[in-house]
């Protein structure tokens, strides 16, 4: 009876943790590009562009096409590409950069984060290294709740944009792993106070100067701009 009660408590905690995270993040998840944002920066989470079987990873290309769509429809101005580059032979951000530029996104609209070793690291670095407090997160629907919850817990104003694609073989394993990862996230945030694997110096994202915005701000402040160079 004691063992049964313990197992029941574990199951209730497991289910409750997942339902809590899903309920907290559901209102800020959008399924279509037209409804996502608008926001200055979109954070795109890295994954391998190849599957273990050697074929192209549909999850990777779904994220890239959705991110490119956000830029082309002006729902975001800039993309932070965060992924794993733990070894010389494996470089997720570089693969993301190549895919997005092939989709017509300009290089100056892309910032690469080579130390996004996990969802947690990506968001901590987005806040502390790239100084972002607002962003649209781009990834699959089953991944978004955990990513959004971490962002919210860090004090960021985040929303999610679903990178839609058809189900693939073996995706059920990813979904089960994600349910487990959501529970572990609560421990990362509130119990053992996890830290990012690597931070490094602050590198704020620089945006092109919008002269129209500068003019509007100056007029509202009562400052007269000098037209001379």
TrEMBL record:
Function comment: Participates in the barrier function of the cell envelope.
Keywords, in A-Z order? Cell inner membrane, Cell membrane, Membrane, Transmembrane, Transmembrane helix
Q: Where in the cell is it found?
A: Cell inner membrane
The reply to whether Cytoplasm figures as a keyword in the UniProt entry is: no
Q: Which domain of life is it from?
A: Bacteria
What species is this protein from?
Vreelandella azerica
> Which protein is depicted?
DUF218 domain-containing protein
Q: Which GO terms describe its cellular component?
A: plasma membrane
Q: Specify whether Membrane is a keyword of the entry.
A: yes
The record places domain DUF218 at 43-181
InterPro entries assigned: Cell_Envelope_Assoc (IPR051599), DUF218 (IPR003848)
**Which CDD domains did the record assign?**
YdcF-like (cd06259)
What Pfam families does the record point to?
DUF218
Membrane topology per record: Single-pass membrane protein
């Amino acid at each position: 009876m004691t063992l049964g009660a313990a197992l029941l408590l574990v199951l209730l905690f497991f289910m409750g943790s997942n339902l809590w995270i899903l309920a907290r993040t559901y209102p800020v998840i959008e399924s279509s590009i037209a409804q996502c944002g608008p926001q200055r920066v979109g954070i795109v989470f890295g994954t391998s562009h190849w599957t273990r079987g050697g074929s192209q990873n549909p999850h990777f290309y779904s994220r890239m096409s959705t991110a490119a769509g956000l830029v082309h429809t002006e729902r975001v101005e800039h993309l932070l590409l965060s992924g794993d580059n733990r070894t010389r032979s494996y470089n997720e951000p570089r693969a993301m950069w190549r895919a997005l530029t092939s989709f017509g996104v300009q290089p100056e609209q892309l910032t690469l984060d080579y130390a996004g070793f996990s969802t947690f690291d990506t968001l901590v670095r987005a806040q502390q290294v790239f100084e972002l407090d607002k962003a649209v997160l781009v990834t699959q629907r089953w991944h978004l709740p955990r990513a959004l919850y971490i962002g919210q817990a860090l004090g960021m104003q985040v929303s999610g944009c679903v990178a839609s694609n058809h189900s693939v073989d073996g995706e059920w394993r990813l979904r089960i792993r994600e349910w487990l990862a959501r529970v572990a996230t609560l421990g990362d945030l509130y119990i053992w106070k996890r830290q990012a694997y690597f931070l490094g110096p602050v590198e704020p994202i620089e945006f092109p100067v919008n002269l129209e915005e500068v003019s509007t701000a100056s007029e509202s402040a009562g400052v007269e701009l000098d037209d001379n160079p």
